[in-house]
Amino acid sequence: MYSGDESLRGAKEEVPITKTQIEEMIRCKEDIIYFANNFFYIVNQDKGLIKIPLREYQKQVLKCYVDPPNGKRHVLLQQPRQSGKCFLSSSIINIRDKSTGEIIETTVPALISGGNSETVLEE
After folding, report:
1. Which pTM was predicted?
2. Which residues pair with 105 in a beta bridge?
């Protein structure tokens, strides 16, 4: 117990682990989606603490972290906060050229790496 809170373990406190808990840890280690669906929580304004309902693109991103595409060792996801982090490769994006004011319509694959994107997540 830590600071009188039964839900927090103290330093070097021994914790008994059952065979079922070990099996659950192994399953979580082997399946990131199972782990996320069962152990990722958020605080919802209306419902309080709830498990995160993962969207398909979020599952794809988690899978890429565990098993990066094209045999790469690392995955980089460049996204600002609160941007939704969801798109399809067919999504059309309008970009305004600051110097000319011209509106350019493009798609995600054309936008990434000047159209030479190796991997774009599909729906």
Report:
1. 0.54
2. 94
